[in-house]
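Protein record

Derive tokens from sequence
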Amino acid sequence: MHYDSTTLPNGLRIVSEEMPTVASVAIGCWVDTGSRDERPEEAGVSHFLEHLLFKGSDRWPARRISEAFDAVGARHNAFTSKEYTCFWARLRDEDLPLGVEILAEMLRRPAFRPDEIDAERSVVLEEINMNDDDPTDVAHERFIEALWEGHPLAPPVLGTRGSIEAMTREIIDGYWARRYAPSSVVVAAAGRIPHDRLVELVERWFGDWEGDAGGRRLQPPAVEPRVRLERRDTEQAHLVFGSPAIPRDDERRFAHLVVDHVLGGGMSSRLFREIREERGLAYAVHSFRLPFAEAGASGIYVGTTPSRAAEVLKLVRAELDKLLASGLDDDELERAKGHMKGALALALEDANSRMNRLGRNELTGLPHLSVDEIVARVDAVDAEAVRDVVAASYGGPYVLGAVGPLDEEQLEGFVR
């Protein structure tokens, strides 16, 4: 991997990787702000703002933006997380000047027209309704609430119906002024674009942007055994079980990736084989990681018949106990390493994946590792590294988020 980086005098960072064999460019504007940076009265404003910036500026209103991107066959969208927001486009290399200009207008000069705020408010409320209708999403939200109760990472990215209904133009504009500034933005690109040409375009449209963004105070959360149940008359019980884990920049993250794949990352994983293949207790079962700046989590999702929820949770705890006691065997370790190296190679064939990797790493402070460097770190994972990360990321305290016709008192025994 070869990449180039430049920091403009106003603090905006530019990072890119040239891919001369493709005919397109993926570009993203990464903003160092997300739901964890919101004040109580601002709950959901990061995501609401993501929607509103597509309404454009006085010079580039929403219809002109969509028609301009459509006219050149571009793809464009955005996403918001707990720690960052990204606005991106993928388009032909010769159309990149248009893309940079539009993204700059969106980020720097949003109009915040009252009628568009009200219209988009309804859209966001429908998105909240859609997520609330999905018990899998709700179970994950309950898991995060149980894990990080009282911490800035706990509130949902979308906010609540109450917070979105009460969101005023003044709150939105105040948050944008506080969090959107050149020092909080990374422009990342991958594709057929020389770095010097990208810097020229970004400097033209972002170079005179001024202002400083607010900082972020990090505080490791205190986690206690906890169950968060939302009782619903569903056909399945949706269970998300897990514990605190290592934070994002911990050097043990490569070992964590290996262990997560063996535990529940694919059709050969322990959880898939034990719960689905051998016992037929679930259709969907998998494990996952949640890495953040000062905290992390390891989680396991299972959807099962409510009457069999206790049986499934016993099996989950048994697999974790086995992992804590014995780690991984040599065959599992080698298969997981092979999977990670293969998945990395496939991901790097796509310009959008490369852009995402560049932007996320630059914004969060992770090193830009080459493929060889990543492979070397994966290959270095041994039995001792596995034991270390398993103890740090799977040993509790345990929490459970659940949705279904269940009894909370019965569930509490599984987190003790």
Residues 43 and 162 are 9 Å apart (CA to CA).
